[in-house]
C-alpha cells in the first residue's frame, strides 16, 4: 500500500489542533471559565498558528474556513475538556504536556505546508515556528497568563529545532515518514526535557 503523505500530514495537523485546543481549554479551567470560555480559548489556541501561517502565505480562505472539520475538532475537544478537567490531579502539568505535543506537531506540519508553497528553507522554518507558537501566545494573552514565549522558557527554540531537523531530513530525500517523525521527536523530546528538568535559556537581564 503506497504511503499517503497528504493523509498523514492532515492527521498530524488534526491531532495538533485537537491537542492545542485541549491545552487552551485547560488554561480556561485554571481561570474557572464556563463552557463557552473553554470553547473560545481552546479554538483560538488550536487554529491560531495555522491561521497566521495561511494569512502570511496567501493561502486564502484559511484552512478552517475551507474545511470546517478543523474548527469542529477544536470545539469538540474543548467542550470535552470542560467535563474532564475537574477530574485531573494537576491542570498545570496536563497543560504543559498537551502544549508540548501540540508544539512539536505544529512545528512539523507548519514547515511542510510552507514547503508545499515552494517557499525558501528560511521561510519554511519561520512558518513552522509561527504555526507552533502563535496559538499558545494567543491563549496566554486571552487568559492573562505569563507569556511562555517571552521569557527564558525553552519553548520557541524547540519548535525551531524540530522544524530545522524536518527540513534537513527532507533535503536528504529520505522516505517522507522519516522527516515527519524526526522533526516531531526532536521538538517534543527537547520540550519534554525542558519541562522535566526545568531547563531554561540563559537570561543576562534577569536579576540574580
Automatic annotation (TrEMBL):
Where is this chain primarily localised? membrane
Q: Where's the Glycine transporter domain? A: 14-85, 96-169
> How does the entry describe its membrane topology?
Multi-pass membrane protein
Q: Which Pfam families match?
A: Gly_transporter
Position of the signal peptide: none
> What keywords sit in the KW lines?
Cell membrane, Membrane, Transmembrane, Transmembrane helix
Recorded superkingdom: Bacteria
Regions that span the bilayer: 6-28, 35-56, 68-85, 94-115, 121-142, 178-199
Tell where it localizes: Cell membrane
GO CC field: plasma membrane
By sequence similarity, the record places it as follows: Belongs to the UPF0126 family.
Q: What is this protein called?
A: Glycine transporter domain-containing protein
Organism whose genome encodes this protein: Marinobacterium lacunae
Source taxonomy? Bacteria, Pseudomonadati, Pseudomonadota, Gammaproteobacteria, Oceanospirillales
